[in-house]
Design goal:
The chain is mainly alpha-helical and 361 residues long. It has 14 helices and two strands. A two-stranded antiparallel sheet has the order 1-2.
């Protein structure tokens, strides 16, 4: 919205700054951060008054959660989504299709998560919106976003799957790219949702992954950078750096209240939305495979659930003490902050590996 101030760049000093993506990304970060700090406490108080018993806690989960997490309100993802949306609308170019694709995916999955959280809180149990309904809605959003991204990609990249590390290696998926992109977006959304099980566990890896994807978006959106790095050029996608900066700022503001012991949980409202955002950014930047590296924490969490279910059905035994895998470490006696911080460290290392794929060719 504020990009229009560049019209004064030739007549008034200082307004030229609004032309630079990096300046607007920094402004978006601090706008979202301030929003999170300022509105965090009032939102938590509102959620507490509306949610008498807080988020329902799974009875089959770790026993300690029934003692330490009962009564904590959920839907804190509203804080992140509001901060992200306000900052993006203020500082991004609103004529950029990639911004709208990512923003609408984020809000779409946020709406699914909100409905799920609302159903859980209203019923006082962990049963929310039926899984089939959530899946169907997620597939529709993912397919629509993937199709839109494919249509706005340059002709040389439409329907193509880029392979990291190898120079100019592209697999032509044709129209199959649409369901593939939907799978990436839906998979990312549900993976982050599975990871959100401990105070602060999901939000920091999401922020790290989003920041990494933002740097990648900025790089592949500049023709001079892509020529130097030998990666594909996606004109206009660099504007997504502003979206990821807003996500990081809003996430940091939320973490202030979600740090152990959490005053609020993000709930499915936040986890589904943020995961969907990561998937949509990966599809837009043609870095779907790199997302699996950068978001390796989310991949491992999802695989732990799949392995546990498949192995139990086949043998009647469990591979992990409890899945997702962060609960396994809880059962082994690790303290919650110990698990969370170690996962943060792993997420940071994976992000650096993901960034290295830009240069290693």
């Amino acid at each position: 919205m504020l990009y229009w101030l560049t019209t004064f760049a030739d007549t008034l000093p200082g307004f030229n700054l609004f032309r630079f993506i990096t300046f607007r990304a920094g402004a978006a970060f601090f706008t979202a951060l301030f929003f999170g700090f300022y509105f965090g406490k009032p939102l938590i108080n509102l959620l507490r008054t509306r949610q008498t018993n807080g988020q329902p806690i799974r009875e089959d989960g770790p026993e300690s959660h029934l003692l330490t997490k009962t009564g904590t309100p959920t839907m804190g993802g509203l804080l992140i989504l509001s901060a992200l949306t306000v900052a993006t609308l203020l500082w991004a170019r609103l004529d950029n299709p990639y911004v709208w694709i990512v923003l609408l995916v984020t809000l779409g999955f946020g709406a699914i998560g909100f409905a799920d959280d609302l159903a859980k809180v209203s019923r006082g149990n962990v049963k929310g919106v039926p899984g089939r309904v959530r899946l169907a809605l997620g597939v529709l959003i993912g397919m629509g976003a993937s199709l839109a991204a494919m249509l706005v990609h340059p002709p040389s990249l439409q329907g193509q799957l880029a392979v990291p590390v190898f120079k100019e290696v592209l697999f032509n998926m044709g129209w199959f790219f649409v369901p593939f992109g939907a799978f990436v977006i839906l998979g990312a959304a549900n993976s982050v949702n599975l990871t959100d099980g401990l105070d602060g566990l999901a939000i920091m890896p999401v922020m790290i992954a989003a920041t990494t994807l933002g740097v990648i978006a900025y790089a592949v959106g500049r023709v001079d950078f892509t020529a130097y790095l030998d990666v594909h050029y996606v004109p206009g996608v660099g504007e997504l750096l502003i979206v990821t900066a807003a996500l990081a700022g809003g996430g940091l503001g939320f973490l202030w209240y979600n740090a152990p012991p959490a005053a609020v949980f993000m709930g499915d409202t936040g986890s589904l939305a943020l995961g969907g955002a990561l998937g949509a950014i990966a599809v837009a930047t043609k870095h779907e495979i790199v997302l699996a590296i950068v978001g390796g924490i989310f991949v491992v969490e999802t695989l732990s659930v799949i392995i546990q279910v498949v192995y139990f059905k086949a043998t009647g035994k469990r591979v992990f003490l409890m899945a997702p895998i962060h609960h396994h470490f809880e059962k082994k006696g690790w303290a919650e902050p110990q698990i969370v911080i170690r996962f943060w460290i792993i997420a940071l290392v994976l992000a650096l590996i993901g960034l290295a794929t830009l240069k290693v060719r």
